[in-house]
Amino acid sequence: xxxxxxxxxxxxxKAWALRALEPGEPKQVVGNLLQLDLxxxxxxxxxxxxxxxxxxxxxxxxxxxVVCFIARRLRSWPWALALGLLLAGAxxxxxxxxxxxxxxxxxHVIDFLRLPHWPVFNVADMCVVTAACLIALLAFRGVGIDGxxxxxxxxxxx
Length: 158
Hints:
It is a single chain. By secondary structure, this protein is mainly alpha-helical. It has one domain (2-140). The protein has four helices and three strands; from the N terminus they run H-E-E-H-H-E-H. The protein has helices at 2-20, 53-71, 77-99, 123-140; strands at 27-30, 34-41, 109-114. A three-stranded antiparallel β-sheet has the order 1-2-3. Helix 1 (2-20) packs parallel to helix 3, helix 2 packs antiparallel against helix 3 and helix 3 (77-99) packs antiparallel against helix 4. The longest helix is centred in the middle third of the chain and has 23 residues, at 77-99. The chain is globular and about 55 Å long. It starts with a helix and ends in an 18-residue tail after the last helix. The model has no long low-confidence stretch (mean pLDDT 89).
Protein backbone atom coordinates (compact mmCIF):
# COMPACT_ATOMS: atom_id res chain seq x y z
CA UNK A 1 0.00 0.00 0.00
CA UNK A 2 2.88 2.39 0.82
CA UNK A 3 4.40 1.76 -2.60
CA UNK A 4 1.10 2.42 -4.38
CA UNK A 5 0.43 5.68 -2.50
CA UNK A 6 4.02 6.91 -2.91
CA UNK A 7 4.02 6.06 -6.62
CA UNK A 8 0.65 7.74 -7.17
CA UNK A 9 1.77 10.92 -5.35
CA UNK A 10 4.96 10.99 -7.41
CA UNK A 11 3.19 10.60 -10.74
CA UNK A 12 0.38 13.03 -9.89
CA UNK A 13 2.78 15.74 -8.72
CA LYS A 14 4.96 15.30 -11.81
CA ALA A 15 1.91 15.57 -14.08
CA TRP A 16 0.89 18.74 -12.22
CA ALA A 17 4.42 20.18 -12.50
CA LEU A 18 4.47 19.58 -16.26
CA ARG A 19 1.15 21.44 -16.64
CA ALA A 20 1.77 24.28 -14.18
CA LEU A 21 5.49 25.08 -14.42
CA GLU A 22 7.86 26.27 -17.13
CA PRO A 23 11.55 25.31 -17.19
CA GLY A 24 13.77 28.15 -15.99
CA GLU A 25 10.89 30.04 -14.34
CA PRO A 26 10.96 29.06 -10.65
CA LYS A 27 7.99 29.98 -8.47
CA GLN A 28 8.50 30.83 -4.82
CA VAL A 29 6.26 28.93 -2.43
CA VAL A 30 7.82 29.75 0.94
CA GLY A 31 10.14 32.65 0.19
CA ASN A 32 13.54 31.31 -0.75
CA LEU A 33 13.03 28.20 1.40
CA LEU A 34 10.95 26.26 -1.14
CA GLN A 35 10.65 26.92 -4.85
CA LEU A 36 8.94 25.03 -7.64
CA ASP A 37 11.35 24.76 -10.55
CA LEU A 38 10.73 22.35 -13.45
CA UNK A 39 13.87 20.44 -14.47
CA UNK A 40 14.23 17.44 -16.78
CA UNK A 41 17.01 15.39 -15.21
CA UNK A 42 18.79 12.73 -17.31
CA UNK A 43 20.86 11.59 -14.30
CA UNK A 44 20.37 10.18 -10.84
CA UNK A 45 19.65 11.99 -7.60
CA UNK A 46 21.56 15.26 -7.35
CA UNK A 47 22.09 15.10 -11.14
CA UNK A 48 24.87 12.50 -10.82
CA UNK A 49 25.58 10.16 -13.73
CA UNK A 50 23.88 12.26 -16.39
CA UNK A 51 25.59 10.21 -19.11
CA UNK A 52 24.67 6.83 -17.60
CA UNK A 53 20.89 6.81 -17.98
CA UNK A 54 20.78 3.15 -19.08
CA UNK A 55 22.85 2.12 -16.06
CA UNK A 56 20.40 3.93 -13.77
CA UNK A 57 17.48 2.21 -15.51
CA UNK A 58 19.06 -1.21 -14.98
CA UNK A 59 19.85 -0.42 -11.33
CA UNK A 60 16.21 0.60 -10.73
CA UNK A 61 14.97 -2.65 -12.30
CA UNK A 62 17.35 -4.70 -10.12
CA UNK A 63 16.29 -2.79 -6.98
CA UNK A 64 12.62 -3.44 -7.76
CA UNK A 65 13.34 -7.15 -8.28
CA VAL A 66 15.29 -7.46 -5.03
CA VAL A 67 12.60 -5.61 -3.04
CA CYS A 68 9.87 -7.85 -4.49
CA PHE A 69 11.93 -10.95 -3.60
CA ILE A 70 12.56 -9.76 -0.03
CA ALA A 71 8.95 -8.61 0.45
CA ARG A 72 7.74 -12.22 0.46
CA ARG A 73 9.54 -12.78 3.78
CA LEU A 74 8.63 -9.49 5.50
CA ARG A 75 7.19 -9.71 8.99
CA SER A 76 8.16 -6.22 10.15
CA TRP A 77 6.07 -3.11 9.53
CA PRO A 78 9.11 -0.77 9.72
CA TRP A 79 10.82 -2.83 7.01
CA ALA A 80 7.58 -2.93 5.02
CA LEU A 81 7.41 0.87 5.23
CA ALA A 82 11.05 1.29 4.19
CA LEU A 83 10.83 -1.15 1.28
CA GLY A 84 7.46 0.26 0.20
CA LEU A 85 9.01 3.73 0.01
CA LEU A 86 12.01 2.36 -1.89
CA LEU A 87 9.69 0.60 -4.34
CA ALA A 88 7.61 3.77 -4.83
CA GLY A 89 10.69 5.85 -5.56
CA ALA A 90 12.30 3.32 -7.87
CA UNK A 91 9.07 2.79 -9.84
CA UNK A 92 8.37 6.54 -9.96
CA UNK A 93 11.68 7.48 -11.53
CA UNK A 94 11.79 4.31 -13.66
CA UNK A 95 8.43 5.27 -15.16
CA UNK A 96 9.95 8.60 -16.22
CA UNK A 97 12.89 6.80 -17.81
CA UNK A 98 10.49 4.87 -20.06
CA UNK A 99 7.72 7.39 -20.80
CA UNK A 100 9.48 10.78 -20.83
CA UNK A 101 11.53 11.97 -23.82
CA UNK A 102 13.77 10.64 -25.18
CA UNK A 103 12.14 7.46 -23.77
CA UNK A 104 13.13 3.84 -24.14
CA UNK A 105 14.83 3.64 -20.75
CA UNK A 106 16.73 6.88 -21.36
CA UNK A 107 13.99 9.38 -20.52
CA HIS A 108 14.58 12.36 -18.28
CA VAL A 109 13.15 12.34 -14.76
CA ILE A 110 10.86 15.24 -13.87
CA ASP A 111 12.18 17.17 -10.85
CA PHE A 112 10.49 20.30 -9.52
CA LEU A 113 11.12 20.84 -5.79
CA ARG A 114 14.01 23.15 -4.93
CA LEU A 115 15.47 23.96 -1.52
CA PRO A 116 18.39 26.35 -0.95
CA HIS A 117 21.81 24.77 -1.57
CA TRP A 118 20.17 21.50 -2.63
CA PRO A 119 19.58 19.95 -6.06
CA VAL A 120 16.07 19.93 -7.51
CA PHE A 121 14.17 16.74 -6.60
CA ASN A 122 10.75 15.05 -6.70
CA VAL A 123 8.49 12.87 -4.55
CA ALA A 124 10.18 9.67 -5.78
CA ASP A 125 13.53 11.04 -4.60
CA MET A 126 12.01 11.82 -1.19
CA CYS A 127 10.75 8.23 -1.00
CA VAL A 128 14.18 6.79 -1.86
CA VAL A 129 16.05 9.01 0.62
CA THR A 130 13.55 8.31 3.41
CA ALA A 131 13.76 4.58 2.65
CA ALA A 132 17.57 4.68 2.76
CA CYS A 133 17.49 6.41 6.16
CA LEU A 134 14.98 3.89 7.54
CA ILE A 135 16.94 0.93 6.17
CA ALA A 136 20.16 2.27 7.72
CA LEU A 137 18.40 2.81 11.06
CA LEU A 138 16.85 -0.67 11.04
CA ALA A 139 20.16 -2.28 10.10
CA PHE A 140 22.01 -0.26 12.76
CA ARG A 141 19.47 -1.35 15.39
CA GLY A 142 19.76 -4.97 14.25
CA VAL A 143 16.12 -5.35 13.23
CA GLY A 144 15.69 -8.16 10.71
CA ILE A 145 13.03 -8.28 8.00
CA ASP A 146 11.21 -10.77 10.21
CA GLY A 147 10.92 -8.06 12.88
CA UNK A 148 13.28 -9.81 15.29
CA UNK A 149 16.28 -8.01 16.72
CA UNK A 150 19.56 -9.70 15.95
CA UNK A 151 21.64 -10.32 19.06
CA UNK A 152 25.39 -10.36 19.10
CA UNK A 153 26.61 -13.92 18.75
CA UNK A 154 29.50 -14.74 21.10
CA UNK A 155 32.76 -15.55 19.36
CA UNK A 156 33.53 -19.20 20.20
CA UNK A 157 36.55 -19.31 17.91
CA UNK A 158 39.09 -18.62 20.70
